[in-house]
Amino acid sequence: MPTVFAHEFDTPVYKGKVSFNTGLFINGQFVDGSDRTTIDVVNPTNGKVITSISEGTPKDVDLAVDAAEKAFETTWGLNCPGSKRGLLLNKLASLLEEYTDELAALEALDNGKAFNVARYGDIPTAIACIRYFAGWADKISGRVIETTEERFTYTRHEPIGVVGQIIPWNFPLIMFAWKIAPALATGNTVVLKPSELTPLTAIRVCHLAKEAGFPPGVLNVVTGYGNTVGSAISSHMRIHKIAFTGSTLVGRKIMEAAAKSNLKIVTLELGGKSPNIIFNDADLEQAVNWAMLGVFFNQGQCCIAGSRIFVQEGIYDEFLKRFTEKSQSIKIGDPFAPDTYQGPQVSKIQYDRIMGYIDSGKKEGAKVHIGGERHGNDGYFIQPTIFLDTHPDMRIVKEEIFGPVSVVIKFRDEEDVVRQANDTVYGLAAAVFTKDVNRAITTAHKLKAGTVWVNCYSLLGPNVPFGGYKQSGIGREMGEYALANYTEVKAVNVNLGLKMM
């Protein structure tokens, strides 16, 4: 039998007991992995094991695909009206609302993010996403195309079938919702792999999906490692579409596996090295506040992090002074403390990776303005770090760090900063701060990024498309645009009078 995770939270922000099965969720049941092995889930605050979860294998992926195929052919897909699919998704969203505090506590426990950030940010965002796509479930439609009076031509947008999904560890529940909601709304069945570092909310939501009444096999979650479960999903011959959020390096491997197997449809949301541009006429206080959010939110573990901060020379000194003060005011510590903003990095591996980048910046001659060191003695905490005196060829300027590390760069004019901002292999997001609406719009249009914010940062919504240019990904998630990722367009031509001679 799979392990049961039982834990009592007794913290200043949440008190409660949780108890749930941590097996693989296949065909509506929680089961052991085929090899009956487990994976330890570690608390990044102290490095101690929280619990163990079942470890999936390629054989378990096969079983999940079997269940998903059966559900697609019998109880889901075109056999289940969109109105019913929407109803079930809304039931799931209501259950997430009911268990908001518990889910936030689980996010804080295995991810390390502050409970209050999860409680008032991540969980409501996931709920809003599920409700948004629930509303689309009975509105998937084709159209009639005018040809001739002797022909009736129309299109259908049909579900693809079994889809594979692989999500990262930085926003576990949000990414879970972003993936399953459009897929299920359009009638697909799902085989999903969460990160082995942060699997608890994905497993818990499987219990809630079962309670909501989803038929067995519609949603399957196989926990495991990327080189086994992730690889099996990417190369599976009976999975016809795959969606992945994570690093560009892994995205390449998934795209290669998809191509070498059965030419799966692929959507990828990958890395970023986003520029945040602050002009002389910006509201300085607001620019500082948004810049801090843009780079240090979620311990800097955001694909959209505004880690390259470009400040025009006329306000550079004052901006740096205020940004320094703001960054030094960040409360680092226990995710369950009421005033914590920054928790630990998610794992020892990630901690070491970030510290490696910090060391690289020091060795290449950049100046550590603040931070650059470990915070405390326990867990995987890193001080908010600001580098100055960088040059474009430094790794800390070019590569995604995925931690609380920023570079502040002085620029002369619009032409200068647009050139520097676009000098990257990535193109996920960017921001512009200015009171001049013409400058804001013209600069936004010149930036090669999938999302550009003006006088704000990190604002996303379930009805707004999200995705990147260049090596930041393929396709768009969220909004109506996401529906195309999970449907095939069929053209039907009906002969009303044409005679073949």
List keywords for this structure.
501 residues, seven-stranded mixed beta sheet, 23% strand, single chain, alpha/beta, six-stranded mixed beta sheet
What does the secondary structure layout of this molecule look like, with pairings?
Layout: E1 4-10, E2 15-21, E3 24-26, E4 29-31, E5 38-43, E6 48-54, H1 58-74, H2 82-98, H3 100-111, H4 115-136, E7 144-145, E8 151-159, E9 162-166, H5 172-185, E10 189-193, H6 200-212, E11 219-221, H7 226-235, E12 241-245, H8 248-261, E13 265-269, E14 275-278, H9 284-296, E15 308-312, H10 316-328, H11 348-363, E16 367-370, E17 385-388, H12 395-398, E18 405-411, H13 414-421, E19 426-427, E20 429-433, H14 437-446, E21 451-454, E22 469-470, E23 473-474, E24 487-495
Parallel strand pairs: 9-10, 9-12, 10-11, 12-13, 14-15, 14-20, 15-18, 17-18, 20-21
Antiparallel strand pairs: 1-2, 3-4, 5-6, 7-8, 8-24, 13-23, 16-17, 19-22
Helix pairs in contact: 1-7, 2-4, 2-6, 3-4, 4-5, 7-8, 9-10
